Hints:
The protein is an alpha/beta fold. It has helices at residues 7-15, 25-29, 50-59, 99-109, 131-148, 174-184, 256-264, 287-303, 316-319; strands at residues 17-21, 64-70, 113-118, 152-157, 189-192, 198-199, 214-216, 228-230, 233-238, 271-276, 336-355, 363-372, 375-382, 389-408, 414-420.
Amino acid sequence: MHPKPTPQQLAWQEAELTMFLHFGMNTFTDQEWGDGAEDPAVFNPAHLDARQWVSVAKECGFGYVILTAKHHDGFCLWPSAHTEHSVKNSPWRDGKGDVMRDFVDACAEFDVKAAFYLSPWDRHEPTYGDSPRYNEHFRAQLRELLTDYSDIAEVWFDGACAEGPNGKRQEYDWASYYALIRDIQPDALVAICGPDVRWVGNEDGYARETEWSVQDASPEHHPGASGQVWYPAECDVSIRPGWFWHAAEDAKVKTLDHLMDIYHKSVGRNSVLLLNVPPNDEGLLSDPDVARLREFRAEIDRQFATDLAAGQGAVAELTDGSPDTCWEPVDEATPVSVAVELAGARSFCMCVLKEHIAEGQRVERYSLAARVEGEWRTVFEGTTVGHKKIDRFETVRADAVRLRVEASRARPMIQSLALFAKA
């Protein structure tokens, strides 16, 4: 049996873009990691508008949005009954506000999937380090978020861990966290320190050239599982140097060229791009960030506007644009080739390949060739494909393109082949 994605994992991969919203106490103290001793009185985003956050995400093509419900400082963006370190003791909306409520309501309004990050490391909570007591505290806060806010698509954990006030290192009971999530919101993905989505391994936004969604089961993150599982990669990176908003970084938003390079090397390498865009101390996405996001969306749309292979060739399954059809050879023997005849000679420099990952990831090695004046010329050699592989090469003018699958774990199932000219 070949590991396959769950419907939730498949939808997540097909969305391709997720937005992270790092917002909280650090936004007002100009820190990246708070120490938990902050005064809730400093949290007062006068113009907070979660609808602005989510509407911009929607406009720019992000299918999921993750809010930092609690960061390492322990300050909660919802009125938690299990700590005083929360919005209920801030001056914002006279202590009656609930950022999490505003956020999930906005996601529902704009048809974007809501997700949250709950830091396991809590520098404010006195039980941290007393492992059984803190695990119960953490589950209680997790239960609040899962129960009080419906339709959570993803819960995002990192592995940040330290010693508590008692000098002992906290031991997280991951299995109990996963069980709680599955019990209350069984359709929610559990990411990074979780069984459904894994960290790519850096915070630069770049996946590997060879990126498998099929991985060996992790004893910690896949309790009771053995063999291989579907465990796709997520590439996280911030649009700014830091993860939280800092006024001094308003002029340091990543350039469009940098973001496009990240896109090609994350989404274009069988991964999902998690781009952090931190709201400012007014409670809004800042103008430089919004402008760059809109440029980013426009550039993606421009580069991939015209598929020169669309509707071409005799193998309709490759070029019909349908996610429900795919080309597969008669048997599993490799190498195997398939060619697409174009409507005359065309100039192109990018090929986008997709596997039919609903049935798993299979291709191990492939090559692309272009027919130039009757001669086949290899233009690219690659390894994995997965959900999407974007290959860039020198512009070639050809009247046909050939995909040759050199090696595959099973019969290859190629959902689409698309060609694009230099944008």
